[in-house]
Design brief:
The chain has 102 residues and is mainly beta. The chain is built from no helices and 10 strands. A two-stranded antiparallel sheet has the order 1-2. A two-stranded antiparallel sheet has the order 3-4. Strands 5-6 form a two-stranded antiparallel ribbon. Belongs to the CRELD family.
């Protein structure tokens, strides 16, 4: 078997998997910018919104940072994978970018 992966035939956001007589390109974990294999522990660099923790790229919970990210009145922070979103608190709705009572 020839190791086709030795020539790095895959794209930057993929890793190479050598198979018998061939190879396949697999997508890196969403937390990675470039990788050497499957999973968040094989990242070359962590993607934006992720930090290296215990040799893995883990999501940063922007909602628990000391500096508030959702600063408008009656607004709550919701952590998402690699990011966050600001939503109006319960009993309020978004009217032209302002949270007003419903």
């Amino acid at each position: 078997d020839l190791d086709e992966c030795a020539t790095s035939p895959c794209k930057d956001h993929q890793y190479c998997l050598n198979t018998d007589g061939s190879f396949s390109c697999k997508g890196c974990d969403a937390s990675c910018v470039g990788c050497t294999g499957e999973g968040s522990d094989k990242c070359k660099t962590c993607a934006s919104g992720y930090v290296k923790e215990d040799e893995k790229c883990t999501d940063i919970d922007e909602c628990n940072l000391p500096e508030k990210v959702c600063v408008k009145e009656n607004q709550d922070c919701v952590n998402t994978s690699g990011s966050y979103k600001c939503v109006c608190s319960e009993g309020f709705e978004d009217k032209d970018g302002t949270c007003v009572e419903t």
